[in-house]
Write a structure and sequence with these properties.
17-stranded mixed sheet; elongated; alpha/beta
């Protein structure tokens, strides 16, 4: 009876295999099917404990054979998913000697140390290494390796020190990273360090193209020493709190030239980190992203220096040919949020500066930054929270924007719609190509008459608007009807700024 059941199972299995052979996907070459498996694995990152990509090996016998015979499917794996040493050895064997790409998506601890040490025994074949672990794990791992063993194939190195658990003393926490840096890495192109304490001696990475550092505190001279020996650097990303240590001036660093830099990002809690820009030279077309917190605060010793730093950064970008291509501009200063200046080409920001919202006394100087940027190709412009700007200042700015087609304004007062209309017959028309105008969070009780005058003037001149959009604003239905006599109005139906606030018209 048992033999009969086994025979029946074999017949069923053979029948299923034959049916599968008629499936269109079964006609693919094994090499092509293996490539699909690799793409399916690398296109998504799984944070599950189980390696879901192995499911392809359980579909059928053919797929299993293809999966086992595709070394690239095994050369990249997540240590977080490796539960025991035997499985690690199996994966390494199936990788077929290809360069290894090792990562972990969960912080590792000492119980994984034997697995990590087995992987590191293949250190000569590492192409990418991304380790996220506790300090004691990192210390045990790297101090157990030969310090002079070369990582000749390593292209990308990412080291993240987790904060959980009891870590070593600060001086010992540098030891594991120092041991890493003692290993020659002549081909390293990407270096990412997160929450680590950098040792005093850092080697030169002459082929480095991307450097990313996220840490609570770091010396300016430490950053400069890394940059000085990275002439081919293309991307620099720094997420730091206040730069600490000695004054940069006491060490008299030389200006560091980064001619290949294409992307520079600096985020910090203090604007004095901006000192870094005084010691690096980069091409004006470099894409810049700056995110600062509380630059305009009473403790800042030289408030004027803040504006000079802003102006210098914007002017440097404005001198590039790239700046003449910007077609989208945003200048937002929401009192409860932040100051945000962004200049983009299409959907790609070329200049992106954020910081805490400026006070009313600083609005004028920050508004002046816009005049530093080329305006002739701007097609879309968004402004917010710039009350108090004089009509002539608005007019001077918009006279440069001959091709502006879309304008979105938020929290503006009567000076703005006054600027849109001509003050005399001889005055040139402002924004002659404007087609879409949007108002958000504005009180039309003070804007409505100026806006009607503007719409009538545009119709008379033969350049009417295509659309007027009104949202989250204090406007009455009858006022909307008056505007619709002159232009198509897209209105959200709200008669006050926010559905959770009182009508702003009320006292």
């Amino acid at each position: 009876m048992e033999d009969s059941l086994i025979s029946q199972d074999v017949v069923i299995s053979d029948s299923q295999t034959e049916n599968n052979s008629y499936s269109p996907i079964s006609k693919l070459y094994a090499e092509l099917l293996g490539e699909i498996f690799v793409l399916a694995k690398t296109s998504t990152k799984s944070y599950s404990v189980e390696p879901g990509w192995l499911n392809v090996a359980g579909v059928c016998q053919t797929w299993r054979e293809v999966a086992l015979d595709t070394p690239r499917l095994w050369s990249r794996f997540d240590v977080s998913h490796v539960k025991h040493l035997e499985w690690a050895s199996t994966i390494l064997a199936r990788s077929g000697g290809l360069p290894l790409m090792i990562e972990c998506t969960r912080p590792l601890n000492l119980k994984y140390l034997d697995i990590l040490e087995t992987i590191m025994s293949h250190v000569a074949g590492l192409r990418e290494l991304d380790i996220y672990a506790r300090p004691d794990t990192l210390l045990s791992l790297f101090t157990s390796q030969p310090s002079t063993f070369p990582l000749t194939q390593l292209r990308s190195l990412s080291l993240t020190q987790s904060k959980g658990g009891e870590g070593p003393e600060p001086d010992r926490s540098q030891l594991w990273l120092q041991r890493v840096f003692e290993m020659p890495m002549p081909a390293l192109q990407t270096l990412k360090l997160v929450e680590v304490v950098l040792p005093p001696d850092i080697p030169a990475f002459l082929n480095l193209q991307r450097l990313e550092i996220a840490t609570a505190s770091i010396k300016v001279t430490t950053i400069l020493s890394l940059l000085r020996d990275a002439p081919y650097l293309e991307e620099l990303l720094l997420l730091v709190h206040p730069f600490t240590g000695e004054s940069v001036g006491t060490t008299s660093p030389t200006i560091i030239d980064l001619p290949n830099l294409k992307w520079l990002s600096l985020a910090s809690t203090r604007f004095d980190t901006f000192v870094l820009f005084q010691y690096i030279h980069y091409h004006p077309s470099t894409r810049i992203h700056i995110n600062m917190t509380k630059p305009f605060t009473p403790w800042l010793p030289q408030p004027d220096q803040t504006m000079q730093n802003f102006a210098g950064l914007v002017s440097h970008f404005a001198s590039s040919a790239e700046a003449t291509k910007i077609d989208s501009l945003s200048f937002l200063n929401n009192p409860t949020q932040e100051l945000h200046l962004k200049a983009s080409i299409g959907d790609t920001p070329s200049l992106d500066i954020r910081c805490d919202a400026v006070s009313s006394t600083d609005v004028g100087p920050t508004f002046g930054l816009l005049a530093l940027l080329p305006q002739s190709n701007i097609r879309s412009f968004r402004i917010s929270g710039l009350s108090g700007i004089r009509r002539e200042d608005w007019t001077d700015l918009f006279r440069q924007q001959d091709h502006l087609q879309e304008l979105e304004v938020e929290m503006v007062k009567e000076e703005f719609p006054q600027m849109l209309s001509k003050s005399s017959e001889d005055e040139p028309t402002v924004l002659p190509e404007l087609k879409r105008l949007a108002f958000c969070r504005c009180l039309f009780v003070v804007l409505i008459e100026y806006l009607k005058t503007f719409l009538v003037e545009r119709k008379t001149l033969g350049i009417p608007l295509d659309e007027l959009k009104i949202s989250k604003s204090g406007i009455l239905p009858e006022e909307v009807l008056e505007l619709r006599a002159h232009v198509r109005v897209d209105w959200d139906g709200l008669t006050y700024n926010d559905p959770h606030e009182d009508d702003p018209r009320s006292p």
